[in-house]
Amino acid sequence: MTQEAAQAGVQVAMNSSFWIATAIFVIAYVVIVSEMIHKTIVAIIGGSLMLVLKILAQHEAFHLEEFGIDWNVIFLLISMMIIINLMKPTGLFEYIAIKSAKWGRGDPFRIMAIFAVVTSLLSALLDNVTTVLLIAPVTLLIADALEVDPIPYLISCALASNIGGTATLIGDPPNIMIASKAQLNFMDFIKHLAPIVLVVMVFYLGAIKLLWGRKLRTKEELKKRVMGMNEREAIRDPLMLKKSLFVLSLVLIGFIFHGLLHLQPATVALFGAGLLLLLSGTQEPHHVFAEVEWPTIFFFIGLFIIVGGVVKVGLIKWMSVQVLDITKGNLFATSMVLMWFSAFASAIVDNIPYVATMNPLIIDMARQIWPHETGLQLLQHQDLMPLWWSLALGACLGGNGTAIGASANVIVVGMSEKAGNKISFARFMLYGMPIMIMTVAVSTVYIWVRYYLLG
Amino acid sequence: MKAKDVMIRVSDHLAPDATVGEAVNVLISARRGENGTGVKGLAVLDEAGKLIGILTMRDILKAVFPTYMSFMNLGDFAWDGMLEEMAGKVAGKKVQDVMSKDVMTVHEEAPLMECVDHMLKGNIKRLPVVDESNRMVGMLYEKDIFLAITKAMRRGEAKR
């Protein structure tokens, strides 16, 4: 970015395009938060209005990195969904969950803690919704077997999945989006986020011990029900299981080395999806593709276009000027405010549209602070890095605050209601909010010590 | 022939606010017509006699089956006594919470082929028959249509 462009950033032309784009953006976000219309429909209408009203040319929305759809995110999501859809019928996830319950030796709290750890590990590798969909049904079965209240298990499962997802590039959509925009690789996330997530997880286990440790009691004869379950019966297709594990390992190795190999994560995942489809020997990939969560994918597509529109007209630039005005360019203060603001914002609104907006905002801010830097020197400027990590930690962990803060929470609340145990908004928040505040506080100390105190 | 010619007048029906525990007792003792065979489903009528749902044995099975088991393959991990426990929990629920609500009905003047159309396309085995004012007058079972088909075939043979 040149000096001229940086100066142009401060002078945003507030013409009719500016106001039209801003109106589309604001109305779309308000309707998404109100949940009056399904968020995917809102995103598609908002995105296409940006095109119809000529805020963005279709070419800009479809082909430009700066204003357009982030295909890196889209293909990474779709490819991982395909891999998981192919793995699901093997019975691997039932096996893992039943095995975990048996590790807990039928003890209700021990099982809860092991489920929390397993859920967070799986969430670091798969998306949170998938993990919760795979673990929650088994936790309900175990709770029924032990005749204990299933609600603590479900809430703990959702919270653990949001924590675990924070650890890696592929764990949670905000990380996927941040990685793509800031051109960070898988190992960057492992080095900068995984260590703190481990610490957060220890705090989390302590917290659930305090919350539920004493309340969960069962009888000895009921423990035998759990111990009597044979996890091997879960494996339905041993051959496909081996193929799946082979491809998944390959994909993980690919993720670990994608920076060195100069391959994008989406490339690695797409190849993995293709390979597993091939190895599965299916002649009818129909059902595998039908189970891809197209509403989520199109939600992303629509949002990227909406955000692209407001980036182009300069709204985001204008917002970044306001932020810098408030923080006076103090990056430490900015990163702290960013983390806590992100946490509370993500607790209330979907963190996907939030991060989609914040990403270009941070980049615009960086352009104003370092007008002479471009490319990676700008995106990964040493002083900018803590801001990316603060955004990731705030947006991911913030999801734990309320029942609507993260998709995983929405899933467990819905599942619980169907099973006849309604989790009220207040009950979720009673557990979620203190845990969110605790985990963000721990992360705040981490950012401060690692990036500012030790520098 | 029309629906009203082969349908059976079932006097038993269920109230929406009855418990499932009460409903199963009605279901098990209900008969098709005078000294007929047992039924697998009964209409649920509101106070005005309007049909608002149907409760079948399959609905009861679905109510007892935990929803989480339909999300994943967990059948292998069920334990002896689980069904009985779940039955105990479901017994206190209201009929209106477990009945099938979208009920396909036929008018009493409907030709039998129309009834078969509904049964095959909707994958249902019984059709409530209603009159002009939408009040239920009888129930048409798969078996009754089968009997009508049998009669038709026998007549055909007799003519030849």
Question: What do you see in this structure?
Answer:
The complex is a heterodimer of chains A (455) and B (160). In chain A, 76% of the residues lie in helices and 0% in strands. By secondary structure, chain A is an all-alpha fold. Chain A has one domain. The N terminus of chain A is likely disordered. Chain B has 160 residues and is α+β, with helices and mostly antiparallel strands. Chain B has one domain: CBS-domain (Roll). Chain B has 8 helices and 5 strands, in the order H-H-E-E-H-H-H-H-E-H-E-E-H. In chain B, the strands form 2 sheets. A 3-stranded mixed beta sheet of chain B has the order 3-4-5. The model of chain B has no long low-confidence stretch (mean pLDDT 89). The chains are: A mainly alpha (455), B alpha+beta (160). At the A-B interface, helix 6 and helix 8 of A face helix 4 and helix 5 of B.
> Please, what is the oligomeric state?
heterodimer
User: Secondary-structure element order of chain A, as H and E?
Assistant: HHHHHHHHHHHHHHHHHHHHHHHH
- Radius of gyration of chain A, in angstroms, nearest whole number: 22 Å
Q: What is the name of the CATH superfamily of chain B?
A: CBS-domain
Mean pLDDT of chain A: 91
> Which stretches of chain A are poorly predicted, pLDDT < 50 over at least 5 residues?
1-9
**What's the count of strands of chain B?**
5
Q: What Rg of chain B is obtained from the alpha carbons, in whole angstroms?
A: 18 Å
**Number of DSSP-assigned strands of chain A:** 0
| Mean pLDDT across residues of chain B | 89
Question: Helix/strand-derived class of chain A?
Answer: mainly alpha
* Strand content bin of chain A: under 5%
- How many helices of chain A does DSSP assign? 24
Question: What's a quick, concise take on this entry?
Answer:
The complex is a heterodimer of chains A (455) and B (160). With 455 residues, chain A is mainly alpha-helical.
